[in-house]
């Protein structure tokens, strides 16, 4: 009976590969950990090949190859699928819950992530790195525009539905309102995302306020780099952007939507 298998084959005399790091921090979204050194223990010699904890089938149609070959089991596919599903559905380790705090532990890190989110046009991601008061300012502008429109059209335009804004968080209001506005302003969208940034450092003002200096350059021929400053403030979850030139541009454009409709 043919024994279907999952095997790892190396030329005889080859050094076993080093174990892969399968710690949770090395496994990202959509990735599953490889079995690591468990499949590479106690190699044995067989017909000139070093076999690592596996069974090998030889066939005239499929002679053994030199180098590394991975054979995927069909008989064990169901068990493998269950194992993979278990890996994917495992709850995140406690360290993952602290990730946002760890990556915004310095003003430079928070500013860099905020700028990257803006350039990628990821408004929900950008909102994660904004100070609560900055998000509340945007919500106040949106509330003012919605209240001034008795038809409900402005609320549907900015927030996607009429009468449902009360259950949205300031971060959700920011993401929806700015996303809707940017979709109708391709020039502004290009002006925001088509840039390269380099965070240079920060100047502290007390223990909880910092001014991050960064260089930004438009991706057009002959563009001159600009030096800008953004204000960040410390929160219990790390540093957050309180004010920046980009947020001021978005605020001005958002207020213009209210006057133009």
Termini separation comes to: 75 Å
Q: Uncertain regions: pLDDT < 50 for 5+ in a row?
A: 1-76
Write down how many β-strands occur, each being a DSSP E stretch of 2 or more residues: 8
CATH class of the largest domain, anyone?
Alpha Beta
Per the CATH scheme, the topology name of the largest domain is Nuclear Transport Factor 2, Chain: A
SSE string: EEEEHHHHHHHHHEEEEH
- Helical proportion, percent range: 25-40%
Count of separate DSSP helical elements: 10
The helix-and-strand class reads alpha+beta
Number of domains: 2
Give a nutshell description of this structure.
The protein has 261 residues and is of the alpha+beta class.
Keyword list:
alpha+beta; 8 strands; four-stranded antiparallel beta sheet; disordered N terminus; 261 residues
Describe the structure.
α6 (132-147) crosses α8 (170-183) and α6 packs parallel to α10 (245-260). This protein has helices at residues 77-89, 94-97, 99-103, 107-119, 123-128, 132-147, 153-159, 170-183, 186-193, 245-260; strands at 7-11, 43-46, 49-52, 69-71, 195-205, 209-218, 226-235, 238-243. It has two domains: 7-95, no CATH class; 100-260, Nuclear Transport Factor 2, Chain: A (Roll), CATH 3.10.450. It is built from ten helices and eight strands. It has 261 residues and is α+β, with helices and mostly antiparallel strands. The radius of gyration is 27 Å and the shape is globular. The strands form two sheets. A four-stranded antiparallel β-sheet has the order 2-3-1-4, with no helix packed on it. A four-stranded antiparallel β-sheet has the order 5-6-7-8. Helices cover 39% and strands 20% of the residues. A hairpin with a 2-residue loop joins β7 (226-235) and β8 (238-243). The longest helix has 16 residues, at 132-147.
